[in-house]
Amino acid sequence: MTASFGRHVLIETPQGERFLCHPRGKKNQAVVGDQVRWLPTQDEGTIEALEPRRNLLYRQDELRTKSFAANLDQVLVLLAAEPEFSESQLARALIAARAQGIEVLIGLNKKDLGPLFDRAWARLAPYRDMGQVVLPLAVKPASAAQASAPADLADLPQRLLGKTTLVLGPSGVGKSSLVNRLVPGADVQTAEISQALGSGRHTTTSTTLYWLDADRSSALIDSPGFQEFGLQHIEAMALASLMPDLQAHAQSCRFHNCSHRHEPGCGVIAEVSTAAGAKAISAQRYRIYLELFDELSQPPRY
Q: Which CATH class is domain 3-50?
């Protein structure tokens, strides 16, 4: 499945033909990246069943579950020097991806903003220290005077080869600009989809898959921006195992069921430090862990 618009979806056959479909029944369970079984009808196709998924990236709060995409090889979390990113939302996205066994790249856009970029880059030091790949990017020139400047995508294009990658991030960080850089015909494709749906425009609430090569072996999935990322589907006691910097020290805890909050002999608490370093857990990351633990330990409200 290559695009989702409410109850309508766009599916693509192995031969590259695309058809507009709707699910059988009232609720659409399919998401972009799904493999589906479908039947043609007089005007639209009908999705009959979903094939088993390798993974599904989603967020969940107390009111609803929002699925991003399925059968992913990796997620590119795109941030920017401006607007200032939320480290809590970044941590949540990384935890959700790790829970599904999906690799993550972090891209920090707007490298051309100088001091603003340097400050944002410094904030990501704990992630680089724990082995997370962070790429400095300049997807789009910051001003008309720089319009002729080439994009600086580091080695990102090579990291996308042969993989299905979801681009995830808040609004305003340059996701659409990145897609247009990597997929020159992206605007044309979205216009064609909108025409097929009769909507007249490509809505910001849609998710769309674009092929990066003629062989259709590399795909980029563009998703809507988000401001919240609920993790209600994660158990509080599983959090540390989904945060690599904490997990590296959790085996040193005196108690096997340590919550890493107050127990004596906790290997995690012993490594929390305000100083940067590959062996330390940053105080900010530990604060995020405590906030998430408390949030996920609350009884559900109905």
A: mainly beta
Distances (CA, A) of 159 to 47, 133, 135, 225: 33, 11, 11, 22
Average pLDDT estimate for 267-283: 81
| CB 67, CB 156: distance < 8 Å | no
Q: How confident is the model at residue 63 (pLDDT cuts 50, 70, 90)?
A: confident
Domain with CATH 3.40.50.300 in the chain: 56-222
pLDDT per position as a tens digit, 182-195: 998 777 455 555 55
C-alpha closest to that of 120 among 83, 93, 95 = 83
Instruction: Tell me the per-residue pLDDT of 86-103, one tens digit each, with 9 for 90 and over.
Output: 999 999 999 999 999 999
Separation CA 58–CA 67 (nearest Å): 4
- Show the tokens assigned to 171: 């609004």
pTM, two decimals, is 0.89
Helix-strand-coil split of the chain, %, nearest 5: 30, 25, 45
Tokens 């109850």 sit on residue: 7
| Topology adopted by domain 236-297 | Ribonucleotide Reductase Protein R1; domain 1 (1.10.40)
